[in-house]
DNA sequence: GTAGGGTTAG
């Protein structure tokens, strides 16, 4: 039985880490006189969750130096960090460790492996783990669907959706991110619309801003810009966020619709006035349209911020 | 048995 104060200490580390305050969690972690498997795992999970994947892997390394053996809970977070960084080599080492130590590959750990390989684009290893899993849930399938979609294999992603549904597993909001972006990659606007409407009607999944983002991408790139704009401004009941605007901008560029791009970029700047990249985006856009006065204006707005080199 | 583990648009 672990000491009582070690348990409460770990609870505190975990509490701060999962709230996103990894800084405080780390302070507590560093202050603690005693650290066990749970302390390390909580801290690594905190870094992974807040997308400080490098820190997560560094800490995993420190954990090994401290001779604390990771278990399947630790490895879920480590694999997530590997997938996030594209650290396939590290991910494979973890996989080998799992096999060597005969760690049971249950749903969560299995899904983490499937996801890590799929994110990297290593579909062979991803499916090897996938096929070896006794129990798969909606996230296991979604990992494959999203992974395939993001690597340009939209048809493959949609195949897996069909297999999943015929296997009796219901798609959720995460699945639909993969499904809709698969439609974007394949360029099937009508099917995208069908899936989008079936989300609510058939699956009871309320579209989130991410799903509208996918639809904007699909419509603008393969439908027409004005329909995409309608989807964005009128149909989307949620306020478009910066990612949606950037999606819109990059999709618009294909059609070189300067007016819409300009409007969108101004909106983006309002949402994220501190992001330097957005000013560069706006300036480049004006430069492309040879609107030199506007280029100067954007630069003026930038001047008090920070030094940025504009592309010629 | 157990304080700690998986999800997403660009």
TrEMBL record:
One of its GO terms (biological process) is RNA modification. It holds the Pfam family PPR_2. Keywords: Repeat. It comes from the Eukaryota. GO terms for molecular function: RNA binding. Coiled coil: none annotated. InterPro entries: E_motif, PPR_At4g14850-like_plant, PPR_rpt, TPR-like_helical_dom_sf. PPR repeats lie at residues 5-35, 36-70. Gene3D superfamilies: Tetratricopeptide repeat domain. The keyword Cell membrane does not apply. Belongs to the PPR family. PCMP-H subfamily. This is Pentatricopeptide repeat-containing protein. It comes from Coptis chinensis.
């Amino acid at each position: 039985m672990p000491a009582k104060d070690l348990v409460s200490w770990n609870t505190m580390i975990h509490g701060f880490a999962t709230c996103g305050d990894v800084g405080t969690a780390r302070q507590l972690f560093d202050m603690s006189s005693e650290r066990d498997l749970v302390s390390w795992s909580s801290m690594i999970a905190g870094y992974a969750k807040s997308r400080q994947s490098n820190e997560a892997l560094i800490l995993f390394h420190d954990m090994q130096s401290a001779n604390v053996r990771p278990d399947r809970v630790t490895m879920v977070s480590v694999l997530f960090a590997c997938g996030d960084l594209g650290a396939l080599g590290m991910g494979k080492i973890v996989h080998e460790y799992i096999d060597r130590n005969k760690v049971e590959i249950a749903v969560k750990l299995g899904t983490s492996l499937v996801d890590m390989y799929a994110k990297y684009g290593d579909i062979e290893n991803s499916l090897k783990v996938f096929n070896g899993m006794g129990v798969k849930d909606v996230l296991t399938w979604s990992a494959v669907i999203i992974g395939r979609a993001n690597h340009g294999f939209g048809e493959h992603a949609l195949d897996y959706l069909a297999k999943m549904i015929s296997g009796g597993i219901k798609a959720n909001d995460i699945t639909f991110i993969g499904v809709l972006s698969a439609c974007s990659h394949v360029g099937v606007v009508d099917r995208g619309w069908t899936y989008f409407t079936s989300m609510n009607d058939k699956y009871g999944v309320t579209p989130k801003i991410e799903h509208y983002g996918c639809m904007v991408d699909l419509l603008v790139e393969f439908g027409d810009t004005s329909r995409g704009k309608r989807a964005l401004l009128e149909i989307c009941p949620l306020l478009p966020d910066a990612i949606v605007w950037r999606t819109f901008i990059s999709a618009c560029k294909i059609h070189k619709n300067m007016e819409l791009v300009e409007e969108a970029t101004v909106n983006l700047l309002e949402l994220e006035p501190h992001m330097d990249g957005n000013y560069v985006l706006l300036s480049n856009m004006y430069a492309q349209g040879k609107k030199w006065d506007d280029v100067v204006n954007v630069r003026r707005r930038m001047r008090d911020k920070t030094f940025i080199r504009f592309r010629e």
